[in-house]
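Researcher: Go.
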Amino acid sequence: MSKHLHLESTTDSQSFESNYSEIALALHKQGYIVQTFPLPPHLPEALLLALKQHYFDELAPAGIGREDQYQHNPFVRSDRIYWIDQHCHATKEYLSWVDGLRRFLNRELFLGLRQFECHYAHYAPGDYYKRHVDAFKGEQNRKITIILYLNPGWQCELGGELIVYDGDSQNPLIKISPTFGKMVVFISDEFPHEVLAAKVNRYSLTGWLRQDGT
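Model: Structure:
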């Protein structure tokens, strides 16, 4: 199964126009945005349930690099992932919401986004992902990173924060607790970031809108 997904949106994109507009404006002005609960209220719960009921046993150790450079490196990251598809109603609805965002960003920011890839991520207690970037400058691949957190009842003392840096700076730009329903969107090649270890299981959906594809 290809992890690159081409979708025709089935959501009522007009109902999300203000939300899409807020994301587009923030990407244009500062390159990132953190939203508390942008999705329909039922959807994060449905996505977490789908992970636990259908996909948890399919999670596999994540790697770094692409194609022939792809390798598992537990020194860099220790999470497990599963690339999602449209076979589940919850994932199909989420992918449709993202496709509405893709089309909005193309219309308003002329980004030429063509496809989306996305995976569940499970960080067991103590797991981490060291500082990295999702794309390199000048490459026409991953353009926009989208992270959705699926952790009900999360408390700050549990750790697991996403630390986002501004370019080469060693000082954190923002520190984001992975609370339930929160979404982080940023330009993939502008913001190095890392995931700190948590004390309990930590779940998310991480995806990328891409400019390449057929």
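Model: The longest helix spans residues 89-109.
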